[in-house]
């Protein structure tokens, strides 16, 4: 398997030598890291080349590494039904540099890129309709960024009096939890069976 992937990686690497930044085989999968600006030409080659024929776009997703200058990776998973092979393509970008849209190569990239924009704020130039996909139009921020607060920024509810959806700052109605069943955090307000052995108190229910 690794020999076949290494052969494929060498072939593709020779075809896209100017765009290839890294090649890696791990866990039985081939991953190529390419220059951001060359992604559409790389995808076209992988789709159309007779040796490759990666005609199916399985997925596009984002990954966030906030400690990096280019904090985002955009990952493309491709499948070749003709050769029964898969390949992963990666590129790196930041919050302001747009990635060329793959919609012109794979029409299925449309909603995948919208999802990456919605969840991470990754920009795609040339996309026909780059807008949020999973969150509301008034949503603030991008929820899969690692610096996004777990509680979010606002909460949404329908106000019966105003007959409309309203946005309010997030507020936690329950400021703390007081578990009543052997909680390892707060504990309980009565002795548990066995406590008398450690404290010297008489067993529960005995004088």
Description of the structure:
The protein is an alpha/beta fold and 207 residues long. Helix content is 20%, strand content 27%. Helix 3 links the parallel strand 6 and strand 7. The protein has a domain at 2-130: Beta Polymerase, domain 2 (2-Layer Sandwich), CATH 3.30.460. The protein has a five-stranded mixed β-sheet with strand order 1-2-5-4-3. Strands 6-7 form a two-stranded parallel ribbon.
* Tertiary shape: extended
Structural class: alpha/beta
Cα-to-Cα separation, first versus last residue: 74 Å
Number of helices: 4
Low-confidence stretches: none
Key phrases:
207 residues; alpha/beta; Beta Polymerase, domain 2; 5-stranded mixed beta sheet; extended
Topology summary:
Blueprint (H helix, E strand, L loop, with lengths): L1 H14 L4 E7 L2 E6 L4 H10 L7 E9 L7 E9 L4 E9 L5 E2 L8 H12 L3 E2 L28 E6 L4 E6 L25 H5 L8
